[in-house]
Structures are given as C-alpha cells and as structure tokens.
Amino acid sequence: MPQQDAWDDKCTFWQANPDLIQIPPLDWVPCGEGCARADIYQGIATVASYPVISLSLTPGVPTPLLRIAEGTPFGSHIIDIQRVVDLRSGETLAAVEAIMQKPTELDPYAYCVSAAGPVSGLVANGSRAIPEIRQAPFIRGTWDLARGAWTWQLPWPTPDEMGFNTGYCQRVGMEAGGRIFYLCGNVIRAAMTPGSSEITVFDTPGDSGFYVPGYGAALGDLLVWPELDKANAGSRVRAWRPDGSGIQILLDKIPVDTCAVGLSDTRVAGFSTAGACDSYRQEGRFWIADRTKEGILSNLRVGPIFWPEPVVEADRVSTWGDHIAAVWVERENDGMADRRRLLLARTSDWAMRDIRGPDGHEVWEAGLTDEYLYVVYTLPGAKMAQFSEVYRYDLDKFDLIGKPIVPVPDPVK
Asked: Which of 34, 29, 53, 32 has its CA nearest to residue 394?
C-alpha cells in the first residue's frame, strides 16, 4: 500500500490483487426453516471482529457486503486481514493485510491496528502506531466495485491533522468517491474529495436551529441524515449528492423526533423516540416514506410504538422493500448477552419481530435485501464484537424469524 516508505517491518500493510484471492466462498448451511448460516473463519483466521453490513447497487441489484477484520498468529508476527465479502455469492471481493511484529516483553507495543469503527461494508481502515511521535497515522480506503480497486484517502492523517475529535461523531461512508461524512451534532464534516484525506466543514445545521442526533445513511451517491429542531418537537431529513445541486430537504415537519435513518432505492426509513432522542426514551417506533421522482419524500407512514419501556437505537437503520430493521437496546435487560436486540418490521401491516442472539451472543449488525435479512451475532463483554458466523433469514418466512412483538397503544396526550 502507498506511503509506507519510512516504515519498518514492525508493521506493513498490503492490498490483495483481487484476481488472485483464493479464499473459498461462504458455505451456507441450514439452521432451521428459512434460516442459514456460514462460517467466517474458513480456515484462515482464529478471531474475527467488528463486522459491518452495507448495500451496493453497483451490480444493478441490491448486493449485501460484509466487512470482516480477522487475525491469526504466524510465527513471530500477527497477520490481520480485512476483507469485503459479497454475501449473495459468498465471494471475497477485496482484502487488505496488515503484518505486525508480535508484541514481546521487551517490545510490547502493537504497531499495527485495525480500527474498530469501519463505516460501511466496503471500507478498510487501520493505523500505524509510531511510539516516537505518539501519533498514529490513520489509514482508510473504500473498495470501488466498478473499478475493482481501492480508493485510498491520502495522505494518511494523524489525529492532530484531522483537527477534531471523531469520538463525538457518527460516521457515514459513501460508495461514490469513497467519501466519509462525520455527523457531529451541530456540525457536519466530510472528506469530500475522492482520494484525499482532507476534512472540511460540510454544513452547520446548528446555525439554523437544528442538530444531527444520530446515524445517517448512504446508498450509491446519495447521503441522507436526520435533524432535530432545537426549539420544537419533530424533525426533518436532508440529503446531498455530488452533482452540484447542494443540500436539499427531503422531508420537513416529521411529527416525531427522528434519531436515525436508513435508505433504499425507493424509500427512507426512520427510527424515533420521544424526548429529542436522548438516551433511553419512551415511544420507540419506525416510520417509512417513499422517494419520488422529484427527489423528495412523500407518503409518510408512522408505525406504532413497539416497546412499553424506554429504548435507544444502537446502530444504523436498514431498509429494503417492505421491511425495516434496526439494532436497539432497552434500559432494563437480563445481562450483556440480552442487551442488543434486533427489531424487524413489515411496513404493509406493521407486524414486528423481536430477534435476540443465541446463547452467549448479542445482535451486533443487520442488513436487508429484497430477499433476505442478514444478521451477525457477537460475543459480549471482554470479547465484544468478536464473531464466527453470519446468519441469513428468508423474508418470505417473516413469521418464523424471532418472536412477535405486540405494539403498544400511543399515550393519551
């Protein structure tokens, strides 16, 4: 990979020739009616972590992509592989390898790090730790399905060079140009130029009395995000494309506080709670609206409250066709493995299913296509975000997925 001339053999990053990748495709095996699962290790790793599922329309159909970070010891070194897996075909499309000297008692430093916060299934990221300057150059690239190559954001920046604390922001990766957006409440920042790591202020919703409460979404060259009105209840959804048309309002005066949004080729979905999306609030629910030829949203339908207690969304919202899915957390739970759960809704009748992880696991990530719901269950606690399998559920078997949720009546106001 580029810009490693001054580095040493304690840490090096390599990108695979996609034509020479020999990792076998995923092998889906039945796990019940309408359920299949596939082993992720495939004999090449002993640990896998921090999965992300996203969709691409580059092949012309909704293609689910899984980003995996895997590691295994190899003699005096540790090999870490990040790869992009097409969940439809099971093929590994792209891979990045980090080769790091194994920490020892005399030299305990971890010189290579695969970052834990990837923003889409097409992204590889990490950092090269350099103890002498106490800064870690940050590495990020997006796999371009059309070109069959990585778009790297160069030069590799250090945290100081990025100029702000990304820990307070929700990140969204756009497939078009490999752009990255940082939704930071009153300010939105972005790496706007394809192939450049330079980050600039994209917009300041705080200046107009709004702020971004949580997750946005991107599909192809369209970015959407929610904004809350600081002075009044309700919310709006705005959008941007790299076509010179600027930022647009897709839907205004949404009657509920929208905390996160998801995006498909025909619709935008939202997750909302009462109380300006503060942590753990009542009235958790979905909404759905149709995308129009004019580039706005219409026919807003607000779903019922799905849980009687305070909840919070824990990750991105996924939507496709007639379905919405989101990871959520209730304030009271029986333990770490029961903490993160998945809500699946069918918008035609607002039937809903509650999906929890198998014994010892919690729901980490989910994604929808026209046919399937894909879910990754991970270990909680000290092994947080580690996993070994990905699950696939047939949406035609909706009533067999998880357990039913009975909606809660709206409160009398």
From this structure: 34
